[in-house]
Amino acid sequence: MFAVPAFLAAINPAFAAPGDLDAAGFGAGTGKILTAIGPAYDRAAGIALQPDGKIIVAGPCRNDNNDDFCVARYLPGGALDTSFNGTGTALAAIGASDDIATAVALQPDGKVVVAGYCFNGGRYDFCVSRHLTTGAIDTSFDGTGRVMTTIGTAYSMALTLMLQPDGKIVVAGVCSNGGNNDFCLARYLTSGALDTSFNGTGKVLTPIGLSDDTANAIALQSDGRIVVAGFCLGGGADFCLARYMTDGTLDTTFGSTGKTFTSFGASDDNVYSIALQPDGKIVVAGECRSGGSADFCLARYQRDGALDPSFNGTGKLKSAISAGDDVASALALQPDGKIVVAGLCHNGSNYDFCLARYLASGVLDTSFGSAGTTITPVGTSQDHGRALALQPDGKIVVAGACNNGSRTDFCLTRHEGGPFDARNCSMDIDGDNRVLATTDSLIHARIALGMTGPAVIDGITFASHAARQTWADIRNYLVTQCGMSLVQ
Question: In terms of C-beta distances under 8 Å and separation of at least 24 residues, what long-range contacts does 464-471 make, across chains too?
């Protein structure tokens, strides 16, 4: 038997399987990172990826007396980037006491926008801060780098954030209306001032269900309409979504009067994350609780707000990941249409990071982890996965809060994303171990010109040993291995 020389094995290691930790490239050989920032308690709540591969994470950190906004920037390999504020981390006091950062987004110019809720003279209000690429507070943002906004009568808590292509900043969350809680939104100009073209004041307060409503997730359609999701109380808690026009009014073409509700049965259901497919369909994920135990829950909606029956037959699904509580905190869509969901799952004694990957049909992707799921301990006890990002190479980064035995820290894991991974894609489209102008290059050119279906391979003669000789096989390869988006 031919033995692989040691030097070749060292530079060409076996690739890990989809769902495995990226131990070779992240976290100094472990695939995991724990970062202490404040003196006691740090919780990563949001994540964003820079084009250069650096990773931005934000959340609240304890400063001895209360919580501050804090941001950490990591190099692609997981080490803190000391060009960011000298240490790789930055803390910012916003209000008079506790400042709870819940979401982060990255502007095209590299500035970092953080949103959450801050104590403001006896109550919590929406708050937003902006950092320069150096980590310093950007004082061009509302004069101080910080802005606070009152919306509800007793409190206003921003729980999610997005940036519009024109640079405007939209935050959403939960606000009191004097009797219960409603969805609420605010939109800011790039200067930090409220955008008065949005509902006349820059602020919106919307009752959705019969009682308490909380908005946890937000997404922007290509036409500028804003989709917000969370949970709404009536007889129980249900998934609920609302869609707003660009001026802040409800879009009455969506669901019933701009709103839609989804129940998973005799349970409390809560949306925590949302993503929009290229075809405009809306995917949400969260938890469904029944009998004291929670499962991952997902639903997919058509553009008009109706459930999409092509997703699991009903438009919704439940997945038990562990034997105990499973909470889906975040989701992302791969270019091949697969859905990656991250959260926290109970291992019998505490919580671990967990992931699930679904096919576009709603079925678990058995090529990922163990039958479509992974459970990963990070710290020594409680590990709560809260945020998720997909790298361009298909790798999956999860961020959250992990206990290291004596305190809670920012923590991250990175997982192999295959089979959508650039390493698995080559110009040898038909798989005959050659790249020829009469086969591979011709197929690529036809697709680039907009052709699809069997016409792409019409008149092409394949080698007898070519692995892919039909349009179905070639399309599957280009979608799953090369990340292309191709119709049937």
Answer: 465/432, 466/430, 466/431, 466/432, 466/439, 467/430, 467/431, 467/432, 468/429, 468/430, 468/431, 469/430
pLDDT tier for residue 236 given thresholds of 50, 70 and 90: confident
Q: Return the biggest CA–CA distance within the chain.
A: 78
**What percentage of the chain's residues is helix, strand, coil (to nearest 5)?**
5, 40, 50
Nearest to 301 by CA among 329, 259, 250: 259
CATH architecture of 20-419: 6 Propeller (2.120)
Domain coordinates in residue numbering, the chain? 20-419, 425-488
Q: How far apart are CA 172 and CA 166, in angstroms?
A: 18
d(CA 244, CA 222): 13
pTM: 0.85
Beta-carbon neighbour count of residue 450 at 10 Å? 6
Q: pLDDT, tens digit, for every residue of 312-339?
A: 999 999 999 999 999 999 999 998 899 9
Count helices and strands (H / E) in the chain. Answer: 3, 28
The dihedrals phi and psi of 449, each to the nearest 5 degrees, come to: -85, 0
Under 8 Å between Cβ of 290 and 296:
no
